[in-house]
């Protein structure tokens, strides 16, 4: 191994010997000689055929082999790295041990130009250390002769970067409340301090530096992240504020420590304040200028991480700032004009609360950069129960940061559409304990980026049994309060990327599960064998140096030498292509926490032995490409002169991007859903989620019979529903309906248009729901509005319908009994104040224009159907009679088969009884080309703290647990095979005070199982509900009404899905699916479930689907989306318009985007739009099945369902993809009464098919 290592250096030195470029002068007035150039620089100009191709390559050493297949922790005796970050109990600044300044940083780079990476370690209160690598994993301490010890300063983060662009690495160190230090390298690993000379001697709570050429002018600029200044002696005994003109203000001498926070009215509180960060522009003349205000980087915060990355891949580096405590995170988008805009609110749904370290990489193999931000979220039930005091509901309600904050890691998956998915729970990376540094890299060389977390803390600062209140901070610091408590070491963690956003915990298998207080961590291929080694800073024990002995997969290292760009190529992106696919990296070494990786791009190649194409996009704007590179090399790319570069043609690049399928347009009619604030948890404090935020609904129909679609938009409690009328030119206007205004107190749930009277126009039924009123109150009254045929809608007479007063859900219409008129089913959601008790779902039979409750006689099982969320009429068994399917919460998807007008419970026979979930919506269509009807069912997804399997389901009890007669809710989950409570003692004991008498500590509560906390009799007597799956997916029909469940692709599980449209969106003849998502109304302790933005899934014709990126579909629907419908405008239009209802938000609309062909002509997929002219009492043919047949493609089958998805009614027009040839195509209709007819496909854009008797 050592012989190969030395041979590598000799090979690189030989390359240098034939180097024919001139050296540069250093700022230390010492000439840059041959010896002071790095080996990477030498290798870029070696005399070989590769030089002419723009790169030089050196073979890597053979992979190291250890005693086990993993990482080997080398001893200080082996490495020579004996450095220890010690807790200095006598230091005058020991109060900093409560902060991110607790432990020093790690930086890796080649400071002496010998081609091997060296280590720089900062030491908090001690002296920094510089270790030169003299052989594979052999280091010598050269601090004294290098003059980089830092003196008496309390050092934090440091960066190795070529600040003066002279070809060697300089070192910049951030210090706490003393001047930051800049050590300029003379090219041979000797340094002089020059911070003041460069304008970089900042004195503040400087946490860590990050260099990047943000303005792309060829030199490195600097972001200095700050944290907080800790006042000696803690808070003063005298209040640090006064009052002037009736307004409080912080006294000047305390303003750098404290800030006043306004809580409304005359309520204020005093809090610690973070410090403002600084952005400094390199002037190119050996000085820097503070441009923070000028560029828009002005926010103060408790900063713990700064990450330079190009999230939107526009070539301009952006910055993500992770802040601790209540300070919001920031995503500064580089505008390309020297300014930044904080786009965090629009780009991410929520952030971690106590944001720690962060790193970015492509984690889902789509060549877009994703970002992972750490928090302190526990991996165990005990940890959650004993630290959740910091995230109780009251405290969360006082957090006003935007984006909202959630106490768990945040994984932002790049959609390419200026908004990110948040998928930490889905990927299994949401909880990693008290994490400091994150490292995302391909540690096993399989071509996928893995994750490493450094964990632990000097003391347990957040234990629920040891709180610290404001009074205890007077006259003493936080460290004074906790110094006597024991340390909190935790295991470091490693996760292997399995693909498809799945990560496997390999901490123990890889030998990285060290129990320690670990902080900064950096990676580099220290022994040049092509895999990444790790260096981790620990508290009170030596730095960990890990040698990577996984010895798997081929590998490639790419180093850059800039000419017009900065010398290291920081900010450049490097991408490769192999037969296995593409990979992308960005040279941005300062990632994680107080960490600087070596500025070399590393690629794991798996079994690939050759890189077909390597592309470097330099910060200068030039693109460099090399083809045909053998694996297992260190390749150095030298930026060519301007005249030899391929400039990135941004105009051409933009022109090559495909037009999106849809484009967002303004809210039709300016419609907005407006919730009235309501405390769902007042009556039932342990509710899993809010029940007052379940709307809005949307129902589409040609209400005025003018040939295009209008729609009803359901209002919240206190807001009237709205009717939007289509003018035929894809524009809508809201018309005033007096009856709607009179019913504004109702919370609209399901709505459906149907002809109740058989007079040829469409009437409207609206169910009422929510929990804002007492059960049975007038606000829960369902409504029937009759159409007078001339645009008016008036309330039906009291005897025209039963006037149901349950808290309802979905509504669906069909002629279930084949008597020629349309009947209804009305779902019931919950009994207000008694969740999870459900009201009775009802079947309303149409008898000569009157709706009569026929449930007891026709479908008695509906009375106990459970918490029904959606309903749909559909012929599941293909016998010509529409059956009834219902989705339920804490229950199965229920199937009641229609036995010639009577509905028979068939859930178990259909194979659905064991598939319990929190089902939300259902839609029908043939998804696999076999001409029976399959179903899309929406659920809560896989991206929340809730997990559910058949063996270990999610559990809910409802019963009397304290013997006082009142029923309470009790959520439970499995840890291993033990059932434990979901809610902590603080939450549970508020409604069950006996717990405080039985358990006097959170520790006791956390170590008790559910059966130990509550009596066996109480649990046995309680109502028990379970959910075995939370995934959304499809029910594949075997033709007889028996089903197999198949989950959707994982990205579709990133949030709860509600509304769904199943239609044809790309014209290929196979059904596609559009889901809308998100729910932010979960109990505060459970966090937000808003990681989605809607999902388009294209069908493959076999009931499997591929997710379409929002950057391609154009469908970005943030917020809590509920209903989604497809409608049409104009008599000739084939292209759909999608409407998305958002709870407490503006209606979103997406129009089909016109796509330009090669000659500039408008092109779009061709759709067949089908409308039915049905029999008298059912004029739109609700319940009919239509099949398009063609010899040139598989059959396409759809049903016309009046009421489907979630709180939705789609247009009565069905959409099919055009066949390859329309000459032999025909449409077959199976009408609701059993009649059948065939119709040739006409050239008309809209096919109107008439009932055969007409």
TrEMBL record:
Indicate, by first and last residue, each region the UniProt record lists as having compositional bias (Polar residues).
27-51
Which keywords has UniProt assigned to this entry?
A: Glycoprotein, Repeat, Signal
> Which region ranges are annotated with the description Disordered?
27-59
Give the domain of life: Bacteria
Look up keyword Secreted and say if it applies: no
Q: Which Pfam families match?
A: FG-GAP_3, UnbV_ASPIC
- Outline the extent of the ASPIC/UnbV domain: 569-636, 1181-1238
Known PANTHER family for this protein? Answer: CARTILAGE ACIDIC PROTEIN 1
Q: What is this protein called?
A: ASPIC and UnbV
Q: Which organism is it from?
A: Posidoniimonas corsicana
């Amino acid at each position: 191994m050592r012989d190969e290592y030395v041979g590598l250096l000799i090979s690189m030195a030989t390359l240098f010997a034939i180097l024919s470029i001139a050296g540069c002068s250093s700022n230390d007035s010492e000439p840059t000689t041959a010896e002071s150039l790095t080996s990477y620089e030498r290798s870029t100009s070696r005399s070989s055929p590769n030089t002419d191709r723009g790169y030089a390559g050196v073979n890597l050493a053979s992979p190291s082999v250890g005693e086990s297949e993993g990482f080997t922790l080398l001893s200080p005796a082996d490495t020579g790295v004996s450095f220890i970050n010690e807790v200095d109990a006598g230091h005058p600044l020991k109060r900093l041990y409560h902060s991110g300044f607790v432990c020093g940083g790690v930086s890796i780079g080649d400071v002496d130009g010998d081609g091997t990476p060296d280590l720089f370690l900062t030491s908090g209160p001690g002296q920094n250390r510089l270790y030169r690598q003299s052989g594979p994993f052999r280091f010598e301490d050269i601090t004294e002769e290098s003059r980089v010890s830092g003196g008496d300063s309390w050092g934090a983060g440091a960066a190795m970067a070529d600040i003066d662009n002279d070809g060697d690495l300089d070192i910049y160190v951030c210090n706490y409340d003393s001047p930051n230090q800049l050590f300029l390298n003379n090219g041979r690993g000797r340094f002089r301090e020059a911070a003041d000379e460069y304008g970089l001697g900042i004195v503040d709570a400087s946490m860590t530096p990050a260099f990047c050429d943000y303005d792309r002018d060829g030199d490195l600029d600097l972001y200095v992240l700050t944290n907080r200044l800790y006042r000696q002696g803690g808070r003063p005994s005298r209040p640090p504020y006064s009052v002037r003109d009736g307004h409080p203000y912080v006294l000047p001498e305390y303003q750098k420590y404290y800030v006043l926070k306004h809580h409304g009215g005359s309520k204020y509180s005093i809090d610690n304040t973070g410090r403002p960060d600084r952005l400094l522009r390199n002037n190119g003349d050996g000085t820097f200028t503070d441009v923070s205000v000028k560029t828009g980087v002005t926010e103060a915060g408790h900063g713990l991480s700064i990450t330079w990355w190009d999230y939107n891949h526009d070539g301009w580096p952006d910055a993500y700032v992770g802040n601790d405590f209540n300070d919001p995170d920031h995503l500064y988008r580089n505008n390309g004009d020297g300014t930044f805009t904080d786009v965090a609110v629009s780009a991410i749904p929520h952030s971690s609360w106590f944001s720690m370290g962060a790193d970015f990489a492509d984690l889902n193999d789509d060549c877009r950069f994703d970002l992972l931000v750490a928090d302190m979220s526990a991996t165990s039930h005990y940890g959650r129960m004993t630290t959740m005091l910091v995230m109780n509901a009251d405290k969360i309600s006082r957090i006003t940061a935007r984006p909202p904050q959630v106490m768990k890691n945040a994984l932002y998956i790049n959609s390419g559409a200026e908004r990110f998915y948040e998928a930490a729970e889905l990927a299994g990376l949401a909880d990693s304990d008290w994490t400091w540094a994150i490292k995302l890299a391909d540690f096993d060389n399989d071509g996928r980026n893995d994750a490493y977390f450094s964990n632990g803390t000097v003391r347990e600062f957040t234990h629920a049994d040891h709180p610290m209140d404001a009074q205890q901070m007077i006259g003493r610091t936080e460290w004074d309060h906790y110094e006597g408590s024991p340390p909190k070491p935790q295991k470091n963690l490693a996760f292997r990327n399995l693909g498809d956003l799945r990560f496997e915990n390999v901490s123990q298998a890889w030998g990285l599960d060290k129990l320690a207080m670990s902080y900064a961590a950096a990676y580099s291929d220290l022994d040049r064998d092509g895999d990444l080694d790790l260096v981790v800073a620990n508290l009170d024990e030596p730095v960990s140096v890990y040698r990577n002995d996984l010895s798997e997969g081929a590998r490639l290292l790419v180093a850059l030498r800039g000419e017009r760009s900065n010398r290291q190529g920081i900010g450049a992106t490097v991408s490769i292509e192999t037969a296995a696919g593409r990979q992308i990296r960005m040279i941005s070494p300062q990632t994680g926490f107080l960490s600087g990786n070596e500025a070399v791009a590393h690629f794991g190649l798996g079994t690939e032995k050759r890189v077909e194409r390597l592309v470097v996009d330099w910060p200068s704007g030039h693109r460099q490409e090399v083809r045909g590179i053998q694996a297992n090399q260190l390749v150095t790319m030298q930026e060519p002169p301007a005249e030899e570069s391929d400039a990135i043609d941004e105009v051409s690049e933009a022109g090559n991007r495909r037009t999106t399928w849809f484009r967002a347009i303004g809210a039709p009619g300016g419609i907005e859903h407006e919730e009235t604030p309501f405390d769902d948890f007042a009556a039932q404090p342990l509710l899993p989620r809010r029940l007052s935020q379940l709307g809005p609904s949307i129902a589409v129909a040609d209400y005025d019979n003018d040939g295009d679609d209008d729609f009803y938009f359901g209002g919240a409690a206190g807001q009237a529903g709205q009717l939007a009328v289509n003018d035929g030119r894809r524009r809508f206007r809201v018309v005033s309906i007096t009856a709607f205004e009179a019913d504004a107190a109702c919370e609209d749930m399901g709505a459906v248009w149907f002809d109740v009277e058989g007079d040829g126009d469409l009437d409207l039924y609206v169910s009422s729901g929510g929990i804002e009123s007492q059960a049975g109150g007038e606000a829960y009254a369902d409504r029937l509005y009759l159409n007078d045929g001339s645009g008016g809608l008036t309330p039906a007479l009291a005897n025209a319908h039963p006037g149901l007063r349950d808290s309802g859900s979905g509504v669906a219409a069909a002629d279930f009994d084949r008597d020629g008129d349309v009947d209804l089913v009305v779902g019931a959601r919950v009994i207000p104040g008694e969740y999870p008790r459900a009201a009775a779902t009802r079947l309303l039979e149409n008898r000569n224009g009157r709706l009569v409750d026929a449930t007891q006689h026709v479908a008695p099982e509906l009375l106990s159907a459970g918490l029904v969320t959606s309903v749909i009429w559909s012929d599941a068994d293909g016998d010509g009679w529409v059956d009834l399917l219902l989705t339920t919460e804490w229950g199965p998807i229920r199937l009641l088969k229609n036995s010639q007008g009577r509905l028979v419970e068939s859930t178990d026979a259909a194979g659905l009884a064991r598939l319990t979930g929190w089902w939300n919506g259902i839609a029908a269509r043939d998804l696999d080309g076999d001409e029976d009807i399959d179903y899309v069912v929406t659920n809560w997804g896989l991206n929340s703290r809730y997990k559910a399997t058949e063996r270990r389901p999610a559990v809910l009890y409802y019963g009397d647990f304290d013997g006082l007669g009142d029923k309470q809710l009790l959520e439970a989950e499995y840890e291993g095979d033990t059932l434990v409570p979901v809610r902590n003692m603080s939450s549970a004991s508020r409604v069950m005070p006996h717990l405080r008498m039985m358990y006097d500590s959170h520790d006791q509560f956390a170590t008790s199982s559910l059966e130990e906390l509550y009596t066996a009799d109480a649990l046995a007597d309680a109502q028990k509900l379970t959910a075995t799956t939370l995934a959304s997916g499809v029910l594949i029909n075997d033709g007889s009404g028996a089903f197999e469940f198949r989950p959707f692709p994982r990205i579709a599980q990133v949030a709860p899905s509600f509304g769904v449209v199943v239609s044809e969106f790309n014209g290929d003849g196979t059904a596609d699916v559009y889901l809308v998502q998100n729910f932010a109304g979960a109990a505060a302790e459970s966090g937000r479930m808003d990681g989605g933005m809607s999902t388009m899934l294209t069908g493959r014709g076999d009931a499997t689907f591929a997710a379409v990126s929002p950057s391609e579909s154009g469908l970005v629907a943030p917020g809590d989306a509920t209903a989604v419908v497809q409608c049409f405008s104009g008599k000739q239009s084939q292209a759909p318009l999608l409407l998305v209802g958002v709870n407490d938000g503006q209606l979103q609309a997406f129009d089909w985007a016109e796509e330009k062909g090669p000659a500039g002509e408008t092109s779009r997929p061709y759709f067949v739009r089908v409308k039915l002219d049905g029999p008298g009492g059912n004029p739109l043919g609700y319940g009919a099945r239509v099949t398009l047949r063609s010899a040139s493609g598989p059959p396409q089958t759809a049903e016309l369902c009046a009421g489907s998805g979630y709180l939705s009614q789609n247009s009565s027009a069905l959409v099919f993809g055009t066949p390859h040839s329309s000459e032999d195509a025909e449409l077959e209709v199976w009408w609701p009464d059993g009649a059948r007819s065939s119709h040739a496909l006409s050239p008309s854009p809209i096919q109107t098919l008439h009932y055969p008797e007409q």
